[in-house]
Amino acid sequence: MGAADAGTPMALTFRRFGYLGAFLLALAAVFFAVFGAPALDGATGVQLAVFVVAGVFELLGGVQNPIRERVGALRLVGVGHVFLGASMCLGALTGEGLLFRGLFALSGLVLVAFGVDYLRGGTYFETPEA
User: Fold this and answer.
1) Nearest CA-CA partner of 105 in 29, 113, 79, 125
2) CA-wise closest residue to 51 among 19, 20, 72, 16
3) Where are the transmembrane segments (predicted)?
4) What are the angstrom distances between the C-alpha of 65 and each of 15, 25, 70?
5) Each residue's pLDDT tens digit, 6-32
6) Nearby residues of 112 by Cβ (< 8 Å), 6 or more positions away
7) Is residue 79 part of a domain?
8) d(CA 99, CA 97)
9) Residue 70's pLDDT band (boundaries 50, 70, 90)?
10) Would you say residue 7 lies in a domain?
11) pTM for the whole structure
């Protein structure tokens, strides 16, 4: 970072979402390895499946690939955010404690709002640079 860059904020790039997607997929794999298939019954299984779909879309939006070139990185990341927010809302349904459930659901809805905005072209929230 040179002297000319000292006052400029760091621009968001889609690469970060690729790292996020890889992290989400690794987290899902660790969960499956530790708790096994019986832990995937009911709402937890649905939540983990939605979580994995979110990771796939985040990863596809963050790395160069033919799907990203055709669909667009912002749309892929937007779908990933929607699924990640939905996963958080599902987690709020199964959590304990009203405060935890409320905060987790609210956080999920905020992510869904980001995702929908990204799907619409990034009107309200800051969008990453290619």
Assistant:
1) 113
2) 20
3) 17-37, 43-61, 73-93, 99-119
4) 12, 18, 9
5) 444 545 688 999 999 999 999 999 999
6) 81, 82, 85, 86, 89
7) yes
8) 6
9) very high
10) no
11) 0.85
- List helix spans (H) across the chain: 15-35, 43-62, 66-71, 73-94, 98-119
For residue 84, being part of any structural domain is answered with yes
Place of tokens 């000292």: 6
In whole angstroms, give the CA distance from residue 82 to residue 37.
Answer: 25
Q: How far apart are CA 87 and CA 21, in angstroms?
A: 14
Boundaries of domain holding 34 = 12-120
Hey, what are 6's tokens? 């000292």
CA 112: distance to chain centroid? 9
How many structural domains is the chain composed of? 1
- pLDDT of the residue at 12: 64
Instruction: Give yes or no for a contact between 130 and 11, defined as CB atoms under 8 angstroms apart.
Output: no
Place 49 in a pLDDT band, splitting at 50, 70 and 90.
Answer: very high
**Contact assessment for residue 58 and residue 83, using Cβ atoms and an 8 Å cutoff:** no
